[in-house]
Amino acid sequence: LYRDQLIEQLGLTDVRTFKPAREDLAETDPAGMLWMSDTDACCHIRKVVPLARALTGFEAWISGRKRFQSKTRSALDAFEIDEGRVKVNPLADWTAADILDYAKTHELPTHPLVAQGYPSIGCMPCTSKVAPGEDPRAGRWRGQDKTECGIHWPIHGKEIDGSGI
Ligand code: SF4
């Protein structure tokens, strides 16, 4: 797995895995098909709630969002306050070329799906290939108004437009 490759190559020692709560899945999505009818609810139990558990006890966290990824991220600041926590976005002003250059310089592996046309990777049912010229995140929830899973609020306002990884 790409994740394991990164852990080994970077020598990471405190990688934590958070999953949806069994009771949330049993109550809200027992058939595992919620993504077909209500993607906001599906993302809520699978991403928003687990991340909230993961952040418990922390005063700050770091996201990898970049302004070039989508129109809804084009005004992203380097620092935000989110639910009383500082959120740091150190890559906010990086371009796609900056990322490739950095990865090359430091011999970091790129995600194997990027070369197959998936510049932004989410859950399998909600991620499609992106055509040349499209926003890198255009393949996420394609055909829906939703642009974020809900772990990041949109830049302006608190409404979920949708509010990702
Ligand atoms: S991205 Fe799709 S499958 Fe994944 S949690 Fe959200 S709605 Fe569910």
Summarize the structure.
This protein has three domains: 57 residues, no CATH class; 45 residues, no CATH class; 34 residues, no CATH class.
The class by helix and strand makeup works out as mainly alpha
The largest beta-sheet arranges its strands as 1-3-2
Overall geometry = globular
- As a percent range, the share of strand residues is 5-15%
Tell me the span between the first and last alpha carbons.
Answer: 18 Å
Main sheet makeup: 3 strands, mixed
Oligomeric composition of the shown chains: single chain
The rounded Rg comes to 16 Å
Compile the SSE list and pairings.
Blueprint: H1 2-10, H2 22-28, H3 34-37, H4 39-55, E1 60-62, E2 79-82, E3 85-88, H5 96-105
Parallel strand pairs: 1-3
Antiparallel strand pairs: 2-3
Bound molecules: iron/sulfur cluster (SF4).
Description:
The protein is built from 5 helices and 3 strands. It is mainly alpha-helical and 165 residues long. It folds into 3 domains: 1-57, no CATH class; 59-103, no CATH class; 110-143, no CATH class. A 3-stranded mixed beta sheet has the order 1-3-2, with no helix packed on it. The longest helix has 17 residues, at 39-55. Bound molecules: iron/sulfur cluster.
Summary keywords:
binds iron/sulfur cluster, 3-stranded mixed sheet, 7% strand, mainly alpha, globular, 165 residues, 3 domains
